[in-house]
Amino acid sequence: MLTSQANAAHRIGLTPNKISIIGFILALASAVSYGLTTSRSSWLLFLAVVFLLASGFCDTLDGIVARTFQQTTVFGGFFDSVLDRYADAAVYAAIIVAGLSNAVWGSVWGVVWGLATLSGSMMVSYTRARAEAVGIKMESVGLAERAERMLILAVVSIIAFFWLPALGYGIAVLAVLANFTVIQRALHVYRTLKKKAAV
């Protein structure tokens, strides 16, 4: 999957770290598009989705290039993870600042749901990092990993072009799913450590 794209990226001199940076820039472009969106400029949501999905594509491609061409490094994984966190924070912060959840929840609860989504997104990644630091594999553990959250946000953003309140409902769904994923991962770590202790 994406092998031909990885080969093409390698041929033009793109390293995994360079692809990660491109993905980060695309995420910032998505954040700017969300931040400038109003009821009169809802077309910017399409632009935000294009940049968001392109960023997600880069996030997948950098890993494939690294593995295919033996360019995997510890720093590369760390660098990619840091950029991903900043990218997520920028996108959700832009949605909060633009008040895109306020049409449904009001100015206070719109911000609350946005912050819950942002913090939940950060904690999903943090719980994985902490678990893997003690030797517990966390890949595919939890309902809403980064790829799933990006797809949900993309879908509700497209719907929001036709009906802006959809984005507010989508943010609330993402908040619930992200924080539920944190709970799932915490329980997975607890059970795994309990089994190890019993051995």
3D structure, described in words:
- The chain is an all-alpha fold and 199 residues long.
- It has one domain: Four Helix Bundle (Hemerythrin (Met), subunit A), CATH 1.20.120.1760.
- The mean pLDDT is 94.
- The protein has helices at residues 3-11, 16-36, 44-68, 74-97, 102-133, 146-162, 165-198.
- It contains seven helices and no strands.
- It is flat.
The beta-strand count equals: 0
Q: Counting H and I runs of at least 4 residues, what is the number of helices?
A: 7
**Structural class of the secondary elements?**
mainly alpha
CATH topology: Four Helix Bundle (Hemerythrin (Met), subunit A)
Tally of separate domains = 1
Assign an overall shape: flat
Rg measurement, Å: 18 Å
Identify the notable features of this structure and list them briefly.
199 residues; Four Helix Bundle (Hemerythrin (Met), subunit A); 7 helices
Q: What's a concise summary of this model?
A:
The protein has helices spanning 3-11, 16-36, 44-68, 74-97, 102-133, 146-162, 165-198. The chain starts with a helix and ends with a helix.
